[in-house]
Design a protein that fits this description.
189 residues; mainly alpha; Arc Repressor Mutant, subunit A; globular
Length: 189
């Protein structure tokens, strides 16, 4: 179904409130969300199988690909997430010896995260992480469409009550706090 298949009304101001229009728009939205989630889920699974790391870990490794060490704040900015989420992913990368953490030469109070040879080897055989695929799609949208999408997605997350706390990284493992928060929101049967 395309937007031209949606029922028309004589008054365009009322078209958005027409039940069949809203139903059609919901179906189009759900279909698009399902396609996007499926593609991202398959890409995450492919990442895990081919590279042996999570999609979030691979996305952070890609952010370090240029070879320059980065602070946690820099990595959070590069990955468009919050410092806490990126820190949890970096901790797992440290355990796998895919990155190193040292004191920054410029500011001894800051940690400098750098990719290791092992981390580079993972990148060579890994596909693009799902978040990079999503960002590439967003980059292809004209500015007006990207803004409309951003506003629409923010409105949807607000309507669903999902505005509290950090969003976290896509396909980030081990978020017990988020799991408890979601469980607390579920109605008791």
């Amino acid at each position: 179904m395309t937007t031209t298949d949606l029922p028309a009304t004589r008054d365009p101001r009322r078209a958005a409130h027409h039940p069949k229009t809203r139903s059609g728009e919901k179906a189009i939205s759900l279909d698009a969300i399902r396609r996007i989630l499926r593609a991202l889920r398959l890409a995450a699974r492919q990442t895990q199988v081919s590279a042996g790391v999570s999609a979030a870990q691979l996305f952070v490794l890609r952010a370090l690909e240029d070879g320059e060490a980065a602070s946690l704040s820099d990595l959070a900015e590069r990955t468009m997430t919050d410092r806490t989420s990126v820190s949890a992913v970096v901790d797992r990368l440290l355990v796998g010896r895919l990155v190193t953490r040292q004191r920054s030469a410029e500011d001894r109070r800051r940690a400098a995260i750098a990719i290791t040879k092992t981390g580079r080897a993972k990148l060579k055989r890994a596909p693009l992480p799902p978040t990079a695929l999503l960002m590439a799609g967003l980059d292809r949208l004209p500015p007006a469409r990207l803004r409309a999408l951003a506003l629409g997605l923010r409105a949807l997350s607000e309507a669903m009550g999902l505005t509290e706390g950090p969003a976290g990284m896509l396909f980030e493992d081990g978020l017990p706090d988020d799991t408890r928060r979601l469980a607390a929101r579920r109605p008791i049967d």
